[in-house]
Specification:
The complex is a heterodimer of chains A (100) and B (479). Chain A has a domain of 39 residues: Orthogonal Bundle (Histone, subunit A). With 100 residues, chain A is mostly helical. In chain A, 17% of the residues are buried. Chain A is built from three helices and two strands. Chain B has three domains: 244 residues, Amidase signature (AS) enzymes, CATH 3.90.1300; 148 residues, Amidase signature (AS) domain (Amidase signature (AS) enzymes, Alpha-Beta Complex); 65 residues, no CATH class. Chain B has 16 helices and eleven strands. In chain B, the strands form two sheets. A six-stranded mixed β-sheet of chain B has the order 5-10-11-9-7-8, with helices on both faces. A five-stranded mixed β-sheet of chain B has the order 1-3-2-4-6, with helices on both faces. The relative contact order of chain B is 0.13. Classes of the chains: A mainly alpha (100), B alpha/beta (479).
Chain lengths: 100, 479
């Protein structure tokens, strides 16, 4: 077994994801099977391979150097706030963070 | 259905005043009203926006002014691509009422040259799936065989074009989500190289893999749309400044002598016999066209699915952290902030999305990062190297798009790993960042479409389109 129920619980906690009892068990079994399959990568010796962290080669990348940090106007703050479940313009309101 | 509209057909009809852009849009909305309750290809229609754009095109005609490249062409947009003022759900309950305050660059560029945006198409939730059955708004039916899936994740974009409910559409491809539904619905469908089309406004699934690309009824229209949406965008630092060639001109070049690589590893066990016969007939046709066929090896092909499902889920777990009930989308109330996050995400995401968040968080978590994520990045480098090595010997690579023809709705939903394994021929090119197209290659028993996939080297879209066009013109679609 590659992944335990406690592992799934820990990961769900890291991802702030409520999972039901049934989901915990289902994902544990399915992800166990997927990790078992992924294990085939260990057939490959990659000790001397550099990880591919990005797709574009340096000469293809337009932003090989950093661009100037220029202030540009943006007038859609009101529209953005309208999408919030609980807006208090110009703020987003959330439940109390600091416990008494 | 009457003969399919093409981009040129629309422009000529408008210029000759055979019909107005408004009448054309209205005609497409009539077709949608007739077929959509069965197919479920569209989630949201944007009539107001479409008719005001059509009016602008009709005014150009009335004034005798030149018409832009996509004047009046009715186009559908996958619902993971942002459209200002038009609801964009990503096929998820968590964004059920989300209305983007800005347009994706690809959408902006289409409209700037006259395209009429009809509406938003159904897809797997956050583009995660290979059958469109992971949409929170119900599955899409394949117009070619309505008991079958249209493929995924851009199933609605493929079905809309195949059913004549749009002249063309935009989809997104992360591991095959443009090419496989194109194959399943019997139409050409293309992803350009990573960096070719701006991702600005594409709601992210896996940022190092996601690409926007076109579906159309023919390869010339695919080339025209790719030409419009391609090119540098200062809002996406991964979009390149590489010049955009005139794809339509380039694709007319003769293919005689073109060197085609046939990778042995893509013809191993697991391929449906009907698919195999069609692809073999397709390769015979390429030989008749005077192409030079060479057997090649791509040694790490068999490791691509495992690599893909590490990288894609890791990036997804990070990208989807933004759905927290604070700035947009669903919120499930609770007195505590953290409980609000947990409940919102637990209630708002569907089963496949949660599965990928759990897997992706796991492969990135302390103690497992090196064993999974870093290992995945290293094998990704080997897969990309396979492609670079191959393109030193050949101009393009030809493979099947999918090992299986369109399957029945509900047939594969209970086994996620089996569903993932069907992405075997498409994820390789996604990991390598190269361009790829799926072109129709006949139908099994005259009913189930098969797609032939063509890969080119990075920024070699012109060669890909050149071969796809020659194959189409030579009757590849009716093999």
């Amino acid at each position: 077994m590659k992944i335990s129920r406690a592992d799934v619980e820990r990961v769900a906690e890291l991802a702030y994801l409520d999972l039901s009892e049934a989901e915990l068990e289902m994902y544990r079994a399915q992800i166990d099977e997927i990790l078992e399959y992924i294990g085939k990568l260990n057939e490959l010796d990659t000790a001397n391979v550099a990880p591919m962290a990005q797709v574009l080669a340096d000469d293809q990348s337009a932003d090989a150097t950093l661009r100037e940090d220029v202030v540009a106007p943006c007038s859609i703050a009101g529209e953005i706030l309208k999408q919030a479940p609980d807006p208090e313009p110009p703020y987003f309101r959330v439940p109390k963070v600091i416990e008494r | 259905m009457t003969a399919a509209w093409t981009i040129d057909g629309v422009r000529e009809a408008l210029a000759a005043k055979k019909l107005s852009a408004r009448e054309l849009a209205a005609d497409f909305y009539r077709r949608i009203a007739e077929r959509n309750s069965e197919l479920n290809a569209y989630l949201t229609l944007s009539e107001e926006r479409a008719y005001s754009q059509a009016a602008r095109m009709d005014a150009l005609v009335a004034a005798g002014k030149p018409l832009p490249a996509l004047a009046g062409v009715p186009i559908a947009i996958k619902d993971v691509i942002s459209t200002r003022g038009v609801r964009t759900t990503c096929g998820s309950k968590i964004l059920e009422n989300y209305v983007p305050p800005y347009d994706a660059t690809a959408v902006e560029r289409l409209e700037a040259v006259g395209a009429v945006i009809l509406g938003k198409t159904n897809c797997d939730e956050f583009a995660m799936g290979s059958s469109n059955e992971n949409s929170a708004y119900g599955a899409v039916r394949n117009p070619e065989a309505t008991d079958r899936v249209p493929g995924g994740s851009s199933g609605g974009s493929a079905a809309a074009v195949a059913a004549g409910l749009a002249v063309a559409s935009l989809g997104t491809d992360t591991g095959g989500s443009i090419r496989q539904p194109g194959s399943f619905c019997g139409i050409p469908a293309m992803m350009g190289s990573y960096g070719r089309v701006s991702r600005y406004g594409l709601i992210a699934f896996a940022s190092s893999l996601d690409r926007i690309g076109p579906f159309a009824t023919n390869t010339r229209d695919v080339a025209a749309i790719l030409g419009v949406i391609a090119g540098r965008d200062s809002n996406d630092s991964t979009s390149t400044t590489a010049p955009v060639p005139d794809y339509r001109a380039a694709m007319e070049k003769p293919v005689k002598g073109l060197r085609i690589g046939i990778p042995k590893e893509y013809f191993a066990e697991g391929m449906d016999d009907g698919v195999r016969k069609k692809i073999e007939a397709g390769i015979e046709l390429l030989k008749k066209l005077g192409c030079e066929l060479r057997e090649i090896h791509m040694a790490h092909t068999d490791y691509a699915i495992a690599t893909y499902y590490i990288i894609a889920t890791a990036e997804a777990s990070s990208n989807l952290a933004r759905y927290d009930g604070v700035r947009y989308g669903l919120r499930v109330e609770d007195d505590s902030l953290l409980a609000m996050y947990r409940k919102t995400r637990g209630a708002g995401f569907g089963a496949e999305v949660k599965r990928r968040i759990v897997l992706g968080t796991y492969v990135l978590s302390a103690g497992y990062y090196n064993a999974y994520y870093l290992k995945g990045q290293k094998v990704r480098a080997l897969i990309a190297q396979d492609f670079r090595d191959a393109f030193r010997k050949v101009d393009v690579i030809v493979t099947p798009t999918s090992p299986v023809p369109p399957f029945k709705l509900g047939e594969r939903t209970n086994d996620p790993l089996q569903m993932y394994l069907a992405d075997i021929y498409t994820v390789t090119g996604s990991l390598a960042g190269v361009p790829g197209i799926s072109v129709p290659c006949g139908k099994i028993c005259g009913k189930l479409p098969v797609g032939l996939q063509i890969f080119g080297p990075a920024f070699g879209e012109a060669s890909v389109l050149q071969l796809a066009h020659a194959f189409e013109q030579a009757g590849g679609g009716s093999l």
